[in-house]
Amino acid sequence: xxxxxxxxxxxxxxxxxxxxxxxxxxxxxxxxxxxxxxxxxxxxxxxxxxxxxxxxxxxxxxxxxxxxxxxxxxxxxxxxxxxxxxxxxxxxxxxxxxxxxxxxxxxxxxxxxxxxxxxxxxxxxxxxxxxxxxxxxxxxxxxxxxxxxxxxxxxxxxxxxxxxxxxxxxxxxxxxxxxxxxxxxxxxxxxxxxxxxxxxxxxxxxxxxxxxxxxxxxxxxxxxxxxxxxxxxxxxxxxxxxxxxxxxxxxxxxxxxxxxxxxxxxxxxxxxxxxxxxxxxxxxxxxxxxxxxxxxxxxxxxxxxxxxxxxxxxxxxxxxxxxxxxxxxxxxxxxxxxxxxxxxxxxxxxxxxxxxxxxxxxxxxxxxxxxxxxxxxxxxxxxxxxxxxxxxxxxxxxxxxxxxxxxxxxxxxxxxx
Length: 417
Ligand code: LLP
What we know:
Bound molecules: ligand LLP
Strand content: 25-35%
Number of domains: 2
Oligomer: single chain
Radius of gyration: 23 Å
């Protein structure tokens, strides 16, 4: 079963909560992202429930879906934010997140982004290199501030997931190598405008096996103990994000409770607050991408294609990571066909499903590309002159337009004659 509880068939029509998806398509057009507010809230509560016995602070990783309404939904529940750029910090602040609930990540922060974060008063910046620590110190000095920092450790744990989203391996660009830590600690004693308050890691995304977290956390704990011996007063241990969701019912994700069962006993003994940075877990199954079938066609081998009006410009995950997304017909059919569901973009990687059993829908009908809440709208582009789609948020029978569809004028608005 997909965990898309709020997307369900009533009679033979797919609904989001109490709203028919075909009516949403008629009102707002397609392609359209439809998000269930209740699903967002439920995922957050499930996460909090799993880690309830551990003193912790959850920072939603806004890169997964940075629509202001999504950030605001979590902020209203008390959640903080993990941001990866000045733009994401701006979004989080616009959504009303308090700066002291924002943590700032990123392997390549520009000086102006560091200054923006310091002036905003974020909880901490997570530094990923010696050079960055020096830059933060210099900028904090210029602003007559003391910067609270965490150091992101590269624990050299290679979590099994798609190679593009594993980040805890020392051959990747992320974090500070353990071998460099003596130099880092020595430096931190000298830099007068820095205060080390956290140790941080993020080993990757869509990780199914809790043992990778255990291995990396053990390393973090070793470093925590050495830092204490050196006299540093660490207040936060940041375990990162990466918790998995089910995209394919044949490959159900490990329940979040299994991660909690392994991690809580390890982390409880430290006496410091733990930070989690879930992104995908909170949003992936809260949205669908609604798309209309433009044409059906066959090639000489009899292979069938559904050509739809959404493509890799709206959801690049199948093209980039060969990831699986369920494709459901909004009006269900008794018959099915084996077909490819492809978009209008001029690339062969522009597909949502290949050789998949799909409802035998007709031209003009709708498909819902499921689990499109994480790393979908945020990774959309204007390639091929495409307009970024509209987004709606559904709560019960209430529907709110939370992002307008782009216009042709917006496509050229920043260009000069
Ligand atoms: N914290 C940091 C420092 C991160 O870099 C990320 C994700 C997260 C937290 C949240 O990870 P999550 O809980 O969502 O797994 N575009 C890819 C995923 C890239 C993840 C990047 N970093 C995809 O569509 O699968």
